[in-house]
Amino acid sequence: MTQQPPKKRASRVVVTTPYLEPGGAVDKMLRDAGLETVFARRADREANGRTLADCVADAAGVVAGTDAFPAEVIEAAPGLKVFGRCGVGYDNIDVAAATRQGVAVTFTPGANRVSVAEHVLALMLNCARRIPQNLAAVRAGGWAQDSGRELYGATLGVVGLGSIGKTVARAALALGMRVVAHDPWLDEDFLAETGTEGRPLDGVLAEADFLTLHISLDETTRHLIDAAALNRMKPGAYLINTARGGVVDEDALADAIEAGRLAGAALDVVETEPLPADSRLRALDSVLVTAHIGAATVEARARSGAMAAGQVIDLLAGREPAHLVNPGYAAHTGAR
Fold first, then answer.
1. Considering 258, 273, 289, which residue would you say is the last residue of a domain?
2. Hey, is 12 helix, strand or coil?
3. If we measure between CA atoms, which residue out of 50, 49, 22, 46 comes closest to residue 36?
4. Residue 180 falls within a domain, yes or no?
5. How far apart are CA 147 and CA 66, in angstroms?
């Protein structure tokens, strides 16, 4: 009797993105591609007492959320080939370590563009009309009718005119706002088409009634909005940050608001998430903080999850994935 060769085990993909579910569309997509899925979200790991390094030790791919993947976790997974990061930020993954290990890192630009842009508008409106404060006053039995501000005719400053920044700019222009923008690589066609005005950073800071940030976090942008930048902002302006918490010096921001330099701020991202109980921002009535929900819509999450899973599938099938962060990974794939 001819002995059959042992069946090859399916490559294992670990899913750490908290909003993806076993049996959901992404799970089915991966399984239909012949992959084995293991869900190792934070709640799953806490329930079974496993560390992130334990969970990815025998993984070929990871569909990643915001969990940190430092070098020691990546190095603990000798068979790992690809990260599919759900979202536009990938600073939670040690890309240099991944590259050294021959691991591709991908991300999903554009998937959450509309959701984040809409959240920026919501934050601006809540700041301008003090809606959360009014709701709290009414719940407490009051009936305050404080004066707010109109967005129409106000100047919006956009720092980072990429996909999300452009979507915010278009929406603001539709509301009758004037838009000034800074980006190291300004899209001149976009400026001409929309009437958005390009400026150096100092010009945007000086002119904006509302300043919104849409830049990635790296060593060149960490605390870009520091005490000096805040002092250059227009008195009475509002700061909106839906990018990365580390772009803003939070102590300097608290100082500026306490001193009355700024009218307020709305942050969807903070340097330490969740926001620490002792953060100075909690005590400031004119600071609104949401729990990193800019991309948290059903539509954006579905797009992002499908894009990340597709990138993992492509790489494990021998195809070049879209939106590759570190093309240099390929030089190291045979070194392990």
1. 289
2. strand
3. 22
4. yes
5. 39
C-alpha span between 88 and 279 (Å, rounded): 26
Q: Which two tokens stand for residue 172?
A: 């603001």
Q: Is residue 6 part of a domain?
A: no
Q: Does residue 273 have an active-site annotation?
A: yes
What is the mean pLDDT, run by run of 10 residues, along the chain of 336 residues?
61 97 98 98 96 97 96 97 94 96 97 97 98 97 96 98 97 98 97 98 98 95 98 98 97 98 98 96 97 96 98 97 96 74
Give the dihedral sign, CA 301/303/305/307. negative
- The answer to whether residue 335 sits within a structural domain is no
CA separation for the pair 165, 82 (Å, rounded): 28
| Token pair for 29 | 């997509």
Residue of 214, 292, 301, 323 marked active site: 292
Active site residue 292: yes
State the residue range of the domain holding 120. 113-289
- Choosing from 193, 258, 273, 320, which is the catalytic residue? 273
User: In total, how many domains does the chain have?
Assistant: 2
* Whether residues 36 and 60 fall in one domain: yes
Q: What pLDDT, on a 0 to 100 scale, did the predictor assign at position 276?
A: 97
